[in-house]
Design brief:
This protein is mainly β. It folds into two domains: about 90 residues, Immunoglobulin-like (Sandwich); about 150 residues. It contains three helices and 20 strands. The strands form five sheets. Strands 9, 10, 11, 15, 16, 17, 18 and 19 form an eight-stranded antiparallel sheet that branches. Strands 2-8-7-4-5 form a five-stranded mixed sheet, with no helix packed on it. Strands 1-3-6 form a three-stranded antiparallel sheet, with no helix packed on it. A hairpin with a 2-residue loop joins β7 and β8. It is globular and about 65 Å long. The C terminus is likely disordered.
């Protein structure tokens, strides 16, 4: 009996210590974000974040890396409310490689990280937020960046549970869409599904579309950001998902195969043209 009590006390102490350490780790956290998911040569990469606990005069260290190599580094003080912000000019001899860049921050023993996409040329590039009309229910915003053309319209197609983007493309480029999850998404059983991306050079009729691959370059609890390759002459880009606006009730979830049934009969795909 005595030994059992000793073991019980030891177990309770170990459990209490574990809970205390876990609580301390949760309280001493650090977050980091960037002002955009995509940057171009000459842009300013704005990094901002917050720590839960300020440790005296300890500075925060921010590094921007590409393939493990340091592109820029900075140390700065934390504000009294735990926030910090730093702007980096994306220009100079170290900003030459296009692709995914990593950002890491370190504050005392705390670390965090995120990524963004960088392009070293700005060819007919434009960025904006486009309001998408919801039939009989207002609008929601879709952020976009396009290289090689212009976006002239974005509409919702409720029959196919998709977004239809109208473009004018005069050279090879890409279209980046920042899709708000609460309004439009592709999920199954609570997990992310791939979108179906269809492109047409002619009309916006289902028979004129071909399917293309895309790249998901950023994912968060609020947004999914995708990059779609474009060719000279592309006019319509359709993004098919499984989820449209909670207010629609009965049309919230749909089987992806049903939503794109017309795409199954497509006889030609640009997969082989672009990716092989």
């Amino acid at each position: 009996m005595y030994h059992n009590r000793i073991l019980c006390i030891i177990f309770t102490l170990i459990l209490a210590i574990g809970i205390t350490i876990h609580t301390a780790e949760a309280a001493e956290s650090i977050t980091i974000e960037t002002s955009n998911d995509v940057y171009y040569s000459g842009d300013f990469v704005v990094v901002f974040g917050k720590v839960q606990t300020v440790f005296g005069n300890t500075p925060v260290t921010i590094k921007i890396l590409q393939s493990g190599n340091i592109v820029q580094i900075a140390q700065l003080d934390i504000a009294q409310d735990g926030t910090f912000v730093k702007s980096f000019n994306a220009s100079g001899p170290f900003w030459t490689t296009e692709g995914t860049y990593q950002i890491t921050v370190q504050y005392s023993t705390l670390t965090a990280g995120t990524t963004f996409e960088f392009f070293n040329q700005m060819i007919d590039q434009s960025s904006a937020v486009f309001p998408v009309n919801i039939p009989n229910s207002g609008t929601f915003d879709v952020g976009y960046t396009i290289r090689g053309g212009e976006v002239t319209g974005i509409d919702m197609n409720l029959d196919r549970y998709s977004l239809l983007v109208e473009t004018t493309v005069n050279t090879n480029g890409n279209l980046i869409l920042k899709l708000p999850r609460e309004s439009f998404d592709a999920q199954s059983d609570g997990k992310d599904n791939t979108f179906i991306i269809l492109i047409s050079k002619e009309n916006n009729e289902p028979k004129d579309f071909v399917q293309v691959e895309y790249e998901e370059i950023a994912t968060s609890s609020d947004y999914r950001t995708i990059r779609i390759p474009l060719e000279d002459g592309d006019k319509w880009v359709e993004v098919v998902g499984t989820y449209v606006i909670p207010e629609f009730g009965s049309v919230v979830i749909i089987i992806l195969v049903v939503a794109i049934s017309s795409a199954i009969i497509i006889s030609k795909s640009r997969f082989s043209v672009r990716y092989n």
